[in-house]
């Protein structure tokens, strides 16, 4: 075996003194490559892509997350979601409207945790996208007079974060309770609750803020992504802080309630069975009704006590078109005693649904 030692008799460390143990310095230059430049212009791998982070320390189930977000976003075209680790995901859309709507309709929440979404720029590595800014709608309450102008709303937005745009409907009505502004806020900072504004006359007013679709946040420090149960600042100040905290659920904007026009006609699903059950419990004869009332202790019911009374203890039930009762009972009575009376179904507090006749003196009698 040949020897690798130097033949000139010099020590081996002198031979290695000039050896570079670092990476070799090799530069690849493609600045003038027309083919690569053309491919870069037509590269659509980052087109309509969004990088998102779930703002929580909890480990989430990626498969469940993908399924929930797909059902919530409901793109017209399909979408692809790739897990990048540490609760970070990359979304790829195949239609510009789906992409734009997803960003515009945010912030999205997953299990009440806020999702930060940022568009992926061409040539950008999705693993190095900064995910600390959140676009959110903020309601500005208690603005009055000239302070409701677009300029003031924009200045307030820039004070809260980075102003994006204001709600076009802000000035549709003078009776509007609040102004809406779209702001990009830094999630590392506490949420702002109020702001003091000095008017031209020298007086000051205080406006308050409400955040729409706001996820989990700490009632102690006001930072998104955790509750006071896991607040490090509260843990550091333990024993020195007492409730109530500076923040609360009131910081969330109330959801606008929708009045359903058909609600007055709708009944519960079990309404038919419940009505049939009550119909079967109606006594069929006056003797049974008296026995039922005696069993239930309704001795004070005017129908049982006097066989007549005012209609204050009854609830009228509609029957047909309103003429059927009169037609059915117009021949009640015998011989010269025959009178024209009206038949109705009423519901007594004590007897349940019963049949009564209305006589001219306004009394009710069971039949």
TrEMBL record:
Ranges for domain Zinc knuckle CX2CX4HX4C: 185-233
Domain DUF4283: 46-126
Protein name in the entry: CCHC-type domain-containing protein
Compositional bias (Basic and acidic residues): 273-292
Native organism: Nicotiana attenuata
Pfam families for the chain: DUF4283, zf-CCHC_4
InterPro entries membership: At4g02000-like, DUF4283, Zn_knuckle_CX2CX4HX4C
Region of interest (Disordered), residue spans: 273-325
């Amino acid at each position: 075996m040949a020897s690798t030692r130097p033949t000139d008799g010099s020590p081996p460390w002198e031979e290695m003194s000039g050896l570079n143990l670092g990476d070799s310095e090799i530069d690849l230059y493609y600045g003038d490559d027309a083919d690569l430049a053309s491919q870069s212009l037509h590269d659509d791998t980052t087109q309509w892509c969004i990088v998102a982070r779930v703002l929580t320390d909890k480990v989430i189930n990626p498969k469940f997350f993908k399924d929930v977000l797909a059902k919530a976003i409901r793109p017209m075209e399909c979408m692809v979601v790739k897990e990048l680790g540490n609760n970070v995901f990359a979304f790829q859309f195949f239609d510009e409207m789906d992409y734009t709507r997803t960003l515009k309709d945010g912030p999205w929440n997953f299990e009440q945790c806020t999702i930060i979404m940022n568009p992926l720029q061409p040539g950008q590595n999705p693993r190095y996208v900064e995910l600390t800014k959140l676009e959110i709608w903020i309601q500005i309450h208690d603005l009055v007079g000239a302070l409701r102008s677009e300029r003031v709303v924009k200045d307030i937005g820039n004070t809260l974060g980075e102003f994006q745009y204001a709600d076009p409907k802000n000035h549709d009505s003078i009776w509007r309770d609040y102004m809406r502004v779209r702001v990009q806020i830094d999630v590392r900072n506490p949420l702002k609750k109020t702001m003091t504004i000095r008017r031209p006359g020298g007086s000051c007013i205080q406006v308050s803020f409400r955040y729409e679709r706001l996820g989990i946040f700490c009632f102690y420090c006001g930072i998104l992504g955790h509750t006071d149960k896991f607040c490090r600042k509260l843990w550091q100040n333990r024993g020195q802080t007492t409730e109530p905290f500076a923040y609360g659920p009131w910081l969330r904007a109330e959801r606008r309630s929708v009045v359903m026009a058909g609600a007055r006609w709708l009944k519960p699903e079990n309404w038919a069975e419940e009505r049939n059950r009550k119909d079967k419990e109606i006594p069929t004869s006056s003797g049974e009704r008296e026995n039922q009332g005696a069993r239930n202790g309704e001795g004070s019911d005017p129908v049982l006590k006097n066989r007549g009374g005012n209609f204050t203890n009854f609830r009228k039930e509609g029957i047909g078109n309103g003429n059927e009762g009169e037609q059915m009972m117009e021949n009640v009575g015998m011989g010269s005693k025959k009178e024209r009376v009206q038949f109705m179904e009423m519901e007594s507090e004590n007897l349940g649904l019963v049949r009564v006749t209305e006589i001219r003196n306004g009394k009710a009698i069971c039949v």
